[in-house]
Amino acid sequence: MRKDFLLNHQQTLLGPLWILFQPVLTLLTYVLVFNKLVGISTGNIPPVLFYLIGIALWTFFSESFIAISFTFTHYESIFQKVYFPRLIVPLSLVSANIIRLLLQLLLLFILILVYWSIYNTPITISWWLLLLPFAIAVIGINGLSAGLLFAVLTAQYRDLINIVNIGIRLMMFITPVIYPVIIVPDNLRLLMELNPLSSLFELSRFCIFNEGTFTTGQLLYSVSITLLLFVGSMMLFHKRVDKLMDVV
Length: 248
Hints:
By secondary structure, the protein is mainly α. Helices cover 73% and strands 0% of the residues. The longest helix has 32 residues, at 88-119.
């Protein structure tokens, strides 16, 4: 985990500061484009805080998913030289992204205090905040599970790498990263609800800001899909891992 974290920021101008600098740049872009130009409402949540939690969670999921998807293509030389449980690599990749997420959440809570002290933005702390680690864990398991599934597929079919990169960009638009679910038209709401990440993102915002749209049924659906994907991807990964070493 520590090695992956350091390697990602080796020989860079800002080093680990990119963990905060990158989401801040993305945040400013989202506020300018989606809030100011397009006029997407973020409800009672200040746009900066609304987008930052969405960016942090989406980066955690997407970076974990993409990194794990390329496990065999990026680490094939290590796999061929040294034997160790292959699952260690995907788990270490998720762990490295957890560190990034925690630092970005720290920035979020600092900004919440800034908004409270300067703009008198109310801070609502409730027992829902205790469910934030649960939401993050399920999002992380989603990234791990989907990544393991595509790790097996991309090892056999290299052209799927392009599909992974395109697909993850498209998926962001059916996940409430840049908009709240409540503004989605009824005829498109089903598409959002089929995405297991939707209710988890809304739950995360509700835990912090006491504002989000989800039901208990939607959360149970998200957890059920996540568990099925996790079990299925783990079984497939363990079944195919040794055979894939002859392919890569």
